[in-house]
């Protein structure tokens, strides 16, 4: 029996607003039956701080530091907390909620869709596995995050290597379609990341910084030889194909599709009313 065909898009480095608009456009097209499920890889130009759909910019984000580091800034259509997209490969998965054997719950669907990430890390020679929060304190952290930093808090079925978080993901469901995207860290500048957020006190900021090094790790901190973007693309592309049991067919956007994305970008993700809304 032949495997289902999903499309594979490698977008390269794009504008922050274009990246988010393309993820949403792929969701639209899949919901309309114009495209099969999609795996997309992309990067960011410039390096960018993305924030979750529900985050409050004035309350949580230190915009002076964002500007000081010449970072892009964008609000995602997904939930979760702030992510610094700098030394990383970003992925997105677009698939119908009623895809065969797709769990109905967010956490279980995350587990299924992240199988490709798990295999990808293993193909890079890392001892990756899924971890479930095992204490009441960690479970409480999921409901009441202690900071606005994505890699500061555990989540269900977290991908970990040597007990530390190696990928941060977020998910939304719209029009009967799941959009899950996330960051695969090659390297991490903890000081820069922590500087981008507001804290109640310097003591709390210092505590988040200390905790980050204990909770998060980048691929090149633990791999004997540094991984390149090209290696990661190959490992995780193969991982998703294997983990989802599908064939990935390369796909390029048409000119009309690119114009659709640019229009959505202008209307939403490059619009301050969206980015800085309360």
Automatic annotation (TrEMBL):
GO terms for biological process: lipoate biosynthetic process; protein lipoylation. It catalyses: octanoyl-[ACP] + L-lysyl-[protein] = N(6)-octanoyl-L-lysyl-[protein] + holo-[ACP] + H(+). PROSITE patterns: BPL_LPL_CATALYTIC. The record marks 165 as: Lowers pKa of active site Cys. Residues 33-248 form the BPL/LPL catalytic domain. Its EC number is 2.3.1.181. It is an enzyme of class 2 (transferase). In the reaction, the free carboxyl group of octanoic acid is attached via an amide linkage to the epsilon-amino group of a specific lysine residue of lipoyl domains of lipoate-dependent enzymes. The reaction proceeds via an octanoyl-thioester enzyme intermediate. Belongs to the octanoyltransferase LipM family. This is Octanoyltransferase LipM. It comes from Paenisporosarcina antarctica.
